[in-house]
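INFO worker-7 received task bundle
INFO bundle size: 2
INFO processing item 0
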Amino acid sequence: MKGKVALVTGGGSGIGQAAAVLFARRGAKVAIADRNTDGGADTAAMVKAEGGEGRFFAVDVTDETQVEGMVASTVSEFGSLDFAFNNAGITHPSRLFHELTLDQWDEMIAINLTSVFLCMKHEIIQMLAQGGGSIVNTASGAALIPAPGQPHYTAAKRGVLGLTTYAADELNNKGIRVNAICPGMIDTPMVASWRESSPEMAEAVVQMMPGGRLGLPEEVAEAAVWLCSDEARWVSGDTMVVDGGMLNR
């Protein structure tokens, strides 16, 4: 990936942070986007510690003007946009379907689905102009099997798979590959907050995990970076599950 440029949203912690560091380790220049300014700055420092070039952009990925500016700033800073990892997302405390409020629904859909559409839209515009690129979107195991107490999260992540497969089909033969990853329960700050809000349900899920442990952000990052790479040049429209085999049980 030497000389290539990667953009990672949600790069201030967890899977996004691990992916930004791994892109740098593979030789890519990395644009890190997050609304968490402290975490984003930390990731940029980690990228530089790997000997890479990194730049943090404070971005609200639900705001199209900011997303368009994020892509433009990445290209202005580094010259191109070769890899995009659309990874920003949130979770909420578990609740039953009929207890879900419209505000909670709207927030989840905006951050976990609409933001992916906005990022893809402007990434694709740039990649078409330059002749190609690779996009990876973070969905979830919840996109395949409903997450208990998470109706809106389940719906949003299944929507990410729909965007992924549609774009992969439309962009076939245009030099742009689009894939998705479906992480299981990963040891990230987002999952930690959910575990704190729903400890009994979370513990039951963890006990179902192969080996009784959570996955590591680095284990998911490896999959995302590989899908971006030329080693995956014949892979597009794919959904890669990275969950230690949980959905296979």
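INFO item 0 finished
INFO processing item 1
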Amino acid sequence: MNQPLADFIRPETLEDVVGQEHLLSKNGVLRKIIESGNIPNMIFYGPSGTGKTTLARIIAKMTDKTLYKLNATTASSSDIKDVINKIGILENQKGILLYLDEIQYFSKKQQQLLLEYIENGDITLIASTTENPYFYVYNALISRSTIFEFKPIKPYEIEKAIIRAIKLMANKLNHKVDIEEGVIKYLATICGGDCRKAINSVELMFNICAHYEQTYFFTMNEAHQIGQRSAMRYDRDGDEHYDLLSALQKSIRGSDPDAAIFYLAKLIEAGDIISPCRRLLVIASEDIGLAYPQAISIVKSCVDSCMQLGLPEGRIPLAEATIFLATSPKSNSAINAIDKALEYVKEGKGSKLPTHLLDTHYSGSKDLGHGEGYKYPHSYKNHYVKQQYLPDDIKNEKFYEYQDNKVESTSKKYWDEVKK
């Protein structure tokens, strides 16, 4: 079986690893832990292709522990028990390092099988996950482990891996390689921080250029064909999905139309229009709100247009809504008011309504005193009369606070005059 290039060139020392400088630099905390030889149970959290598996292999080699590797997408409880049964045998005298990939796919019961053995040191666990471990990994396992976050690898670091891959592949095939200027930088940029994806692109380049006799010619044209859409890192049910939506909303809230339109573009490129449509509707009320009350109607029209048009044309009304919201005045007075009121309701405050506000549209209500003393505002000047509306225990509370924008300031000025 042909060995994939990404596996063939997998680094065997810390010096050969690219990326994760925050963990593996000379003063990086993970590097210091590895070099000490006292390896704790660890969870590696981060995107694919960022070196999690490679580092686990290097740690096993540096500590002379026997490496067992399981993938939670295919492994069963019996596979875990098989590793447990190998504790103490002659070949494992220096210890077992279990690398458990995609741990988020293990059930709570399966994760619990490991607790006793990782706690007493019979097994050193390194688990990896592309999902947030605080959401997907059993709490008892998290409390016994140290979590390290792996980040997408920067393009200039991936370039080193690409150059190394090309040299090793050229030597293996005994061919020269002629590379058009810009190809390496392009492949390093469009892989989305995934080193494995970049190496796979190199391997594919060798495959499609194989018809040349003694020299492989890597051109930008072929690189562009390989790299179409490969920069996207997106999972509609994963962290990237919610991170992008969060970045979109925070950019709009921060009145940065350039950043907002960029994050919208990433969502659209992934073929997702439902999520940004819903989020834009929320933003219209949460972040623009009463500073521009018509915003919700305008955004709703843009969203409806997008849904009727579909992609690619639907991108235009979504872009319009995004830029409109980012450049609109901002107010969060509505969400502040409702959240404060909900807090009071959940605490049981204001349970007894004022008697004069109670319903009078049934026989016998007057006998109960319902509605007695109620003043009808439309019978008074400016359609306003002062009377109590909140329950007695919270009658002086303020839930809505006017904010400093044109619409709310005008409204406040009006009501201040009327209520005098």
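INFO item 1 finished
INFO post-check item 1: The chain is about 50% helix and 10% strand.
INFO post-check item 1: Strands lie at 42-45, 66-71, 96-101, 123-129, 146-149, 176-179, 215-218.
INFO worker-7 idle
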